[in-house]
Amino acid sequence: MEETKTFFLNGEEYFSDKIINLLDIVSYFNYNSSLLVLEYNNFICPKKEWDNIFIDNKDNIEIVTIVGGG
């Protein structure tokens, strides 16, 4: 049985008892991955690493979406 982990996404607290990675989070919340920047524990995380970084207890994730305009 997996331990429940607490993590923070854009300042909101979430809980998971599954093993999840950053790509899982982006997909679950239906973000358009081509239009965002992901910060993981205060470091900008390249897209090619998202499926290799697994969420641990007390991790902090910030997702910033890019919006065009004029």
UniProtKB/TrEMBL annotation:
Pfam families: ThiS. The keyword Mitochondrion does not apply. InterPro entries: Beta-grasp_dom_sf (IPR012675), Mopterin_synth/thiamin_S_b (IPR016155), Thi_S (IPR010035), ThiS/MoaD-like (IPR003749). This is Thiamine biosynthesis protein. The gene is thiS. Keywords: Chloroplast, Plastid. The keyword Cell membrane does not apply. NCBIfam families: thiS.
